[in-house]
Amino acid sequence: MDLGIKGKRALVCAASKGLGRGCAMALAEAGVDLVINARGAEALESTAAELRSFGVQVIAVAADITSEAGRAQVLAVAGDVDILVTNAGGPPPGIWSDWERADFIKALDANMLTPIALMKALLPGMIGKGWGRVVNITSQSVKSPIAQLGLSNAARAGLTGYVGGTARQVAEFGVIINNLLPGIHATDRAVSLDAGVVKARGITMEQAQAERAAGIPARRYGTATEFGATCAFMCSQYAGYMVGQNILLDGGAMNSTM
Ligand code: NAP
Description:
Blueprint lengths: L8 E4 L5 H12 L3 E6 L2 H12 L5 E5 L5 H11 L4 E4 L14 H29 L2 E6 L12 H21 L4 E8 L5 H14 L3 H10 L9 H11 L11 E4 L9
Helix pairs in contact: 1-2, 1-8, 4-5, 6-7
């Protein structure tokens, strides 16, 4: 399927590995030129090289997207983008009594205020052109809280509220904002979450993964390729009537009719 976005320009944050990388790959396959970001330069450059094999232009910016200086660095290079995919690492797990004000501020900065700052910087250009797409990578925890990820539950719920209103303010200008909610996907993040289970319960990594998969109707983890393809569709010409939605990719893990 031709997504109708060949020649557009996208900024994909936190894209050297995992879900962000999956999104960048699918956009490159659709013919989109890319600015990609992550903190570590080595993995970022290697992903950039793979993306160039699709024949698109790729600029890699090694910076911490959750810091003001990092964002300024990325935005200076990003220029006039048509598509924004926001993403960053997720907050650490714990229990409700673990977290102090500083922990919440850090999570809010990374997973709520960073995407908001990026949207505030880039939406005016999209509105001016009468076309734009934003996909925020959030989490299933927005719809169904994950008890040990209280920082994530809180920060991402805040972002979701902001997007719900903002998406409806910019849709009339052809600018479409939605959120993409991963359930468990086979990435480094899943390995680190499963490593926590291994440590807490004294089981093997294979047992932890098998137990988690057994609780999912699809009986497996999602892949970054599947996730990226959904993201690319949400950035396509055909997603113009999808406004302020929260698209859940969780293999059916959340038991809900709608
Ligand atoms: P991942 O495999 O660990 O990859 C994270 C990517 O983000 C890497 O490229 C990493 O590169 C980059 N990154 C991390 N912090 C960054 C920062 N401050 N600035 C710029 N780049 C940064 O993680 P993932 O599984 O793709 O997860 C992506 C997001 O989805 C996370 O917020 C995660 O919490 C959420 N999520 C994931 C799952 C899942 O099962 N995988 C489920 C629900 C939610 P550097 O380390 O080099 O910066």
